[in-house]
Structure prediction request, 86 residues.
Amino acid sequence: MTLVGEIEPDAPEEPFDIVARQQSQTVVRDALTQLPAEQRQVLTLSFFEDRPHSEIATTLGIPLGTVKSRVRLAISKLRELVEGVT
Prediction:
């Protein structure tokens, strides 16, 4: 029983869920290596380093529209690669 305002701790993660998450991470990591370097670079900066697209454009010296196009193409390609495995 919890009192109002108290938070119950999360239930421990089931072993099956842990393995499934690790396998998913491996699939995505492998798919990332198959992207063209330019797409992988903007995706890494955007999603893993949480940088805004405008900052990525400035850092790489490319137009903002190019950053957005590369992110969109990379996500599309990743989707194809991951769906092909699962």
